[in-house]
Amino acid sequence: MDLKEKLVSSFMVFENRVDIDHPVHDIRSEAIKQFEEKGFPSKKEEAWKYTSLKSLQKHDFSLFPKEVGALEYKDVKKYFLHEIDTYKIVFVDGVYSSFLSETTHDGVDVCLLSAALSKEKYAHIIERYFNKTAAASDSMTNLNTAFSKEGAYIYIPKGKMPLKPIEIVHFSTGTEAALMVQPRNLIIADENAELQIIERHQSLTKNPVFTNAVTEIFAEKDARVDFYKVQNDHKEASLVDNTYISQQTNSRVSVHTFSFGGNITRNNLNYYQHGEHIDSTLKGITILGDKQHVDHHTLVHHQHPNCESHQDYKGIFGDKSTGVFNGKIIVDKIAQKTNAFQQNNNVLISDKATINAKPQLEIFADDVKCSHGCTIGQLDENALFYMRSRGIGKKEAQALLMYAFSNNVMESVRIPALKLRINRLIAEKLGVDLGFDL
Amino acid sequence: MLQVKNLHAGVEDKGILKGINLEVKPGEVHAIMGPNGSGKSTLSSVIAGREDFEVTEGEILLEGENLEDVAPEERAHKGIFLSFQYPVEIPGVSVTNFMKTAINESRKAKGLEEMPANEMLKLIREKSALLEIDRKFLSRSLNEGFSGGEKKRNEIFQMAMLEPKLAILDETDSGLDIDALRIVANGVNKLRSEENAIVVITHYQRLLDYIVPDFVHVLHDGKIVKSGGKELALELEEKGYDWVKA
């Protein structure tokens, strides 16, 4: 049985585990139909031309782990941003771990989707938001929707701000030979609310893991959301990350994606602007080696006047790694005075590395400022010689240059402890010890 | 200290240096002058170990050691310093952090421990005073948005920090106004000693009013066509390069 058939036939098993009378289940049932019809995306589709999920479909993934691995905090501490105090929503093999988590209902809700789906008091919020941005989507999102039952649920009421950043961490322990998980996050910042989220998927063994995640983020009027994705997983872990962002007037949402690890990683990041004076920021640093593959697929849909989007992705590709950047900006006819900026700069440090870059601008308004710049190059030999002539070794000089290259993206990270952590990950990924904290 | 013997070098099939002979002893200051395209910058790059140039004949010795196949960073560790005509911008890396890295990389190569932070701070403070550099400047990204004068001052600051045996100053005067030129030259003069040597590469005589050379060499078409004392620079200024080309 191939993975598609297995998933479709497992839906009935899944139905025994959820409340099928809940209104959300109608959405699930519709989604499994959609998935059954479309199947996994193939390279024939324009949007998936450079990323194939075929190699993943040969694994016999467990969909419902029989046994969840036990984890001690000290063993996984390093995957948390433990230098600072945070709320934590932690999942182990797809199952919530209350032991590792620190949730809250004190003025804000930082908890679980399963709880939000089962309690009456959340019903009106679920009804209002669940699957509202992700509805008309590709089959991977449909698949996640069909099996949606667990993930992070965050609701920040009007004018509130949680006391500390929120970490969403997914561990896979390798108790199953191969595991597929489908976390579903629902994040709402009500009017003038603010929050910061750090998300990480981490497998702890080399057993294959396939994560198909969907995150919906709603930023109401004047809200501010900063989302940081840290992708530094094992080389057998693959991720399809679908993030949908719906923004209202005067809201600001930023997503930073740091892609250093994993096997196949596909990031679908979609912004929909539903008001004026909205600011959308999308930034990423990708550093790959071996045969790693990362595909950034972004969409910013400007549907109202006077909004901005700022997009900046840097990529460094070594060995036989491949990168894809497909950045689509749509400016509707009504969306006059839009400022949309897109930058995508790539450095190839090996002859066998590949990057496919495709900016896509569809502009129907006539009074807009849109710019896009896409570069693919090598490290500047002159700059390397400059540093080496000061006694800095070749490898370290390369690392410093790559660091300098990606620095624009780091500048907008607003959690200092996270910035430091990412800088260290970059140094580690580049294999250097520079003797100071970048 | 430095011996350049019959040095031929170039890129691909194009010869640029066509038999350079030069000997620099400790405590000496040499000036190399010449028109554009005579090979001045190539000579400085080749001595510093730039791999884009191929040495086809001859050799370069530092304190008697042949530098063939010695990487640029190793040459730096051995005491060669090249001040660039066009210093490179490195966003996100502060002047201080760059210097820390350069010094500690050099110490690592010599089997020494990293320099303790307080010692480093003291050294930075001392050397930046020499170049009249203020503290704010040190926390800026290396060369990013620096004026021409700031870039050159920063180059000499780095020279002061690294205390090279042989410093090559490639067109350090270009792009400098008279005040910046004076500060840079003062800095260089304070770094002169009986143990180190300086090679000044310049198109114009102007810098040599401030950094007075013991010897002046005129480079033309990849060869040193004339050598003399400091008065040679003045003569050149007066008569122009056509005089030596003849």
UniProtKB/TrEMBL annotation, chain A:
Residue ranges annotated for the SUF system FeS cluster assembly SufBD core domain, each copy included = 177-405
Taxonomy, superkingdom? Bacteria
> What range(s) does the SUF system FeS cluster assembly SufBD N-terminal domain occupy?
24-168
An example Pfam family from this entry, by short name, is: SUFBD_core
What is one Gene Ontology biological process annotated in the Swiss-Prot or TrEMBL record? iron-sulfur cluster assembly
Q: Kindly give the NCBIfam families that the UniProt entry links to this protein.
A: sufD
Q: Which family does it belong to?
A: Belongs to the iron-sulfur cluster assembly SufBD family.
Q: What is this protein called?
A: Fe-S cluster assembly protein SufD
Automatic annotation (TrEMBL), chain B:
Which species does this protein come from? Sediminicola luteus
- Signal peptide, first to last residue: none
Question: Hey, which family's this protein in?
Answer: Belongs to the ABC transporter superfamily. Ycf16 family.
Q: By what name is this protein known?
A: Fe-S cluster assembly ATPase SufC
Tell me the keywords, alphabetical order. Answer: ATP-binding, Nucleotide-binding
InterPro entries per UniProt: AAA+_ATPase, ABC_transporter-like_ATP-bd, FeS-cluster_ATPase_SufC, P-loop_NTPase
Pfam families registered for this protein in UniProt: ABC_tran (PF00005)
Give all residue intervals belonging to the ABC transporter domain: 2-246
Named from the GO MF annotations, one term is: ATP binding
List the CDD domains: ABC_FeS_Assembly (cd03217)
